[in-house]
């Protein structure tokens, strides 16, 4: 093996070193707790990034309790390695540390580990069902990916880590216990068999892309105290028909329900103050929606391609309608624009092929890029309001007779 000095003290004649394979054609390895280099006794504390990566003949390895860290991809691709015991001294395991260890049948993770990197055990398909956790409270990763159809998270777990169930394509049902406070980013990313989920009252945060492309997910009930539906949380959940959002939510961020083409209705809590870009883009069977009164901005493509949308009320506080906000809403026949709207983006109503009546309550807004309205729309405005011409934005205008 090859050793690299991390630190050394000539006075005390002690130091720290890392260890890595050199050469890579051995079967059984015992890493010593210390080595002597130039008369200095050095403790082996680090297995660095890629240290044993690609050692196809590595069958077993003993890690001494002097090691505190296993680096990124340290054992990646060691496809003959069957088991490994990680000593209690280790506190961190890097990203992809054991990725592709396809023969790995058992591994012991000590409670002292406080960090396990993303995809640290990806493609370790022979591992038995096991919960990798930090301090037995943070669920870091669940294996195997494609064996169990249901799973109940232990009651002691308080956090579901980033990517914890990512790619678990066999799980249809999962029970999240009351006590879980955090669901991480990509926690259930592409769990393509997951059918329904109930999020308990204890949850205060759900990360972005948490249920990204859960393609058969039909029902989601959020009972928690979450304040934000993050970016791409339910992105392309094509069969999602029911979502219950709690009153605690105040932000719905970009692409949160993008491509949820089975979602016919959704109730947005009145406390919501922000709905991001493309949130409902491609929700092609969504028929009606009430935007909460506190919302001030309708962002880019928020309702784009909602081709079944027949009714929408824009609240009085809205001051801006973004580019392509209602692009492709081909079932929309009329819409009222509140008097506080100051700006409408390009192509805001492009493809609204049945939108005949656009009624403005206030003065003509700015059209920074023009081309907001198209045939067959007729613009109606109130008497005594200003800025109107005929045509306006290329569309005919008429005074609004109440």
Structural features:
single chain, 402 residues, mainly beta, Leucine-rich repeat, LRR (right-handed beta-alpha superhelix), 3 domains, 7-stranded mixed beta sheet, 33 strands, elongated
If you had to describe this structure to a student in words, what would you say it looks like?
The chain folds into 3 domains: 1-127, Ribonuclease Inhibitor (Leucine-rich repeat, LRR (right-handed beta-alpha superhelix)); 129-249, Leucine-rich repeat, LRR (right-handed beta-alpha superhelix), CATH 3.80.10; 252-402, Ribonuclease Inhibitor (Leucine-rich repeat, LRR (right-handed beta-alpha superhelix)), CATH 3.80.10. The chain is 0% helix and 28% strand. It is built from no helices and 33 strands. The protein has strands at 2-9, 14-20, 28-30, 34-37, 40-47, 60-62, 69-70, 83-85, 92-93, 106-108, 115-116, 130-134, 138-143, 150-152, 159-160, 173-175, 182-183, 196-199, 205-206, 219-222, 228-229, 242-244, 251-252, 274-275, 288-290, 297-298, 311-313, 320-321, 334-337, 343-344, 357-360, 378-381, 397-399. Strands 1, 2, 4, 5, 7, 9 and 11 form a 7-stranded mixed beta sheet that branches. A 5-stranded mixed beta sheet has the order 12-13-15-17-19, with no helix packed on it. Strand 4 (34-37) and strand 5 (40-47) form a beta hairpin.
Secondary structure topology:
Layout: E1 2-9, E2 14-20, E3 28-30, E4 34-37, E5 40-47, E6 60-62, E7 69-70, E8 83-85, E9 92-93, E10 106-108, E11 115-116, E12 130-134, E13 138-143, E14 150-152, E15 159-160, E16 173-175, E17 182-183, E18 196-199, E19 205-206, E20 219-222, E21 228-229, E22 242-244, E23 251-252, E24 274-275, E25 288-290, E26 297-298, E27 311-313, E28 320-321, E29 334-337, E30 343-344, E31 357-360, E32 378-381, E33 397-399
Parallel strand pairs: 2-5, 3-6, 5-7, 7-9, 8-10, 9-11, 13-15, 14-16, 15-17, 17-19, 18-20, 20-22, 21-23, 23-24, 25-27, 26-28, 28-30, 29-31, 31-32, 32-33
Antiparallel strand pairs: 1-2, 4-5, 12-13
């Amino acid at each position: 093996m090859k050793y690299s000095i991390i630190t050394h003290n000539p006075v005390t004649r002690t130091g720290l070193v890392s260890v890595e394979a050199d050469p890579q054609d051995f079967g059984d390895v015992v890493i010593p707790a210390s080595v002597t280099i130039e008369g200095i006794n050095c403790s082996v504390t680090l297995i660095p990034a890629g240290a044993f990566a690609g050692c196809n003949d590595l069958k077993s390895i003993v890690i001494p309790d002097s090691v505190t860290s296993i680096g990124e991809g340290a054992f990646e691709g060691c496809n003959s390695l069957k088991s490994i015991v990680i000593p209690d001294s280790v506190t961190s395991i890097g990203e992809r540390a054991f990725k592709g260890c396809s023969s790995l049948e058992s591994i012991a993770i000590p409670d002292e580990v406080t960090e396990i990197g993303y995809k640290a055990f990806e493609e370790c398909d022979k591992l038995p069902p096991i919960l990798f956790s930090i301090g037995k409270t943070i669920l870091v990763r669940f294996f195997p990916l494609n064996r169990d159809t249901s799973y109940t998270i232990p009651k002691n777990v308080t956090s579901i880590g980033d990517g914890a169930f990512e790619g678990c394509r066999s799980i249809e049902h999962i029970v999240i216990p009351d006590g879980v406070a955090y669901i991480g980013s990509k926690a259930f990313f592409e769990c393509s068999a997951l059918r329904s989920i109930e999020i308990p009252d204890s949850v205060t945060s759900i990360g972005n892309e948490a249920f990204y492309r859960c393609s058969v997910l039909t029902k989601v009930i959020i009972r928690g105290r979450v304040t934000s539906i993050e970016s791409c949380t339910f992105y392309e959940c094509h069969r999602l028909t029911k979502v219950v959002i709690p009153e605690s939510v105040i932000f719905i961020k970009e692409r949160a329900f993008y491509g949820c083409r089975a979602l016919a209705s959704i109730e947005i809590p009145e406390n919501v103050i922000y709905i991001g870009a493309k949130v409902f883009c491609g929700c092609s069977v969504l028929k009606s929606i009430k935007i909460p009164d506190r919302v001030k901005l309708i962002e880019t493509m928020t309702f784009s391609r909602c081709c079944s949308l027949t009714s929408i009320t824009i609240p009085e506080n809205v001051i801006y309608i973004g580019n392509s906000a209602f692009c492709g809403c081909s079932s929309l026949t009329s819409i009222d624009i509140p008097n506080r709207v100051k700006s409408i983006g390009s192509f805001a109503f492009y493809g609204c092929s049945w939108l005949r009546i656009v009624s403005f309550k206030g003065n003509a807004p700015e059209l920074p890029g023009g081309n907001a309205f198209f045939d067959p729309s007729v613009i109606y405005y109130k008497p005594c309001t200003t800025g109107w011409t005929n045509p306006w934005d290329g569309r005919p205008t008429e005074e609004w007779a109440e």
